[in-house]
Amino acid sequence: MFTIVRREEMAEGTVILNEIEAPLIAAKAQPGQFVILKANEDGERIPLTMAETDAEKGTITIIYMVVGRSTALFRDLKVGDGYQDVIGPLGKPTHVEKVGTVVCVGGGTGVAVLHPITRAMKAAGNHVICIIGARTKELLILEEQMRAASHDLRICTDDGSYGREGFVTEELKDILDGGQVDQVVAIGPVPMMKFVSKLTAEYAVPTLVSLNPIMVDGTGMCGGCRVSVGGETRFACVDGPEFDGHQVDYDELMLRLQAYCEDEKACYEDYCRLHDTSTAE
Amino acid sequence: MSVKKKSKAPGRTPMPEQDPEVRRRNFLEVPTGYTPEMAMQEAGRCLQCKKPACVAGCPVSVDIPGFINLLAEGDITAATRNLWSKNALPAVCGRVCPQEIQCEELCILGKKGDPVAIGNLERFCADYEREFGTGELPPKAADTGKRVAVVGSGPSSLTVAGDLVVKGHQVTILEAFHKPGGVLVYGIPEFRLPKEIVAQEVNFIERLGAKVACNQVVGRTVSLDELFEQGYDAIYLGVGAGLPRFLNIPGENYTGILSANEYLTRANLMKAYKFPEVDTPIPIGRDVVVLGAGNVAMDAARTAMRLGADRVRIVYRRSREEMPARLAEIHHAEEEGIEFHLLTAPTRYMGDARGRLTGMTCQQMALGEPDDSGRRRPVVIEGSEFDIDCDLAIVAVGSGANPLLTADTPKLRLNKWGYIDADPESGKTSMRGVWAGGDIVTGAATVILAMGAGRQAADSIHNFLTWGW
Ligand SMILES: Cc1cc2nc3c(=O)[nH]c(=O)nc-3n(C[C@H](O)[C@H](O)[C@H](O)COP(=O)(O)OP(=O)(O)OC[C@H]3O[C@@H](n4cnc5c(N)ncnc54)[C@H](O)[C@@H]3O)c2cc1C
Ligand code: SF4
Ligand code: FES
Question: Fewest CB atoms within 10 Å of the CB: A104, B144, B169, B329?
Answer without folding.
Answer: B144
